[in-house]
Structures are given as C-alpha cells and as structure tokens.
Amino acid sequence: MLRTAFLSAVLSFSALAQTPPARPAGISSDWEVENQMKALSRQAQALAPLLEKVSPEDWTRKGAPQAYVRQLRSSQAEMKNLVAAAGRLSQEPARLSAALETYFRMENMERLLASLREGIRKYQDPALSDQLGAALAANMNNRDRLRQHIQDVAAAREEEFKVVNDEAQRCRVTLTRQPVDERRRTGARKRTR
Length: 193
Description:
The chain is mostly helical. The protein has one domain: Four Helix Bundle (Hemerythrin (Met), subunit A), CATH 1.20.120. 82% of the residues lie in helices and 0% in strands. The protein is built from nine helices and no strands. The protein has helices at 2-18, 30-45, 47-52, 56-59, 67-91, 96-123, 126-138, 140-176, 180-192. The chain is elongated, with a radius of gyration of 27 Å. It starts with a helix and ends with a helix. Mean pLDDT is 84; it is low at 14-21.
C-alpha cells in the first residue's frame, strides 16, 4: 500500500513536470509580452535624446544643487537597466522575478526623472521639461500592462502552488492512513535488500 501511494505521487508529479503548463486565463501570451516589452524599450530609449539636452553642470552656476548632475547620470543608467530588464522579461515572460525587476526599474527611472524635470523647469527650459513629461506619459500604457502582467503571473504561481500543496497533503494523508504493520513490513523489506 505504501509503495502504491508513493508510486502514485511520483507518477502524478512526473506527469505534471512533463506536460507543458497550460497558460492560465488572463496571462498574456509570450509574443504579447515580447511586443509590450519592445514597445516599453522603444519608449524608454526615446528619452535618451531628451536627456542629452539636459545640462545640470550649467545649473550649478545658477545655484542648483550638484545632486542634479548625479540624478541625470542615474536616470541614464536606469534607462539602460530598464531596457535590459525588459529584454530579459521578453525572453522569459513567465518569470515573476523578471517582471518585478522591470517594473521596479521603470518606477525608479520615473522617480529620478520627476525630480530632474523640476530642475529642468527651474534652471534650464520649461518646454524641455514638458517634452520629458510627455515622453514619460506615453509609456503609461506599457506600465499598466506590465503591472497587470505581474498580477496575472503572481496569481498563476499561487494557483500552481495550491495545486502542488493540495497534492502533497493528499499523499501525506494516504501515507499516514496505512496500517502500522504494513509500514514496518515495507521498511523491513527495504532493509533486507
């Protein structure tokens, strides 16, 4: 009986491992995520020419803090990191960690640019600040899609965990319901081999 329960559990798990996972309802297909990440990357890279026009070194002569120079460099680096993270996510759309990294990179870049925009408006050119704001706003649709993808993947992972946990509990119950004598006999046979 113990062997039968153990064999049943092993066969159940191996069948789950060998069959490709069905995409749960609501999760975007791989090609949809890839297209979304390409669009996000294009729009993030569209910020580069605008950031090249920003000159915080000149602002310091007008009384601006030196921190704006670091913010510009950090924004440019974060833009590159965002593009790289989006590329990794497009390669493995089902990886929650890749989706979260992309989202956090986007949020960090937006936070840095919001502060930098204030400096641009005050010390350089309000029109350039507005252009940067428009470019950021154009990426909001991709941001919302990414957030929804994260929620969908997280929900799918929770459901997968629940199924595996329920199966493990079922196997545990089956094993604990076996008579003690049969478990001892099974253990004794294993030792004599």
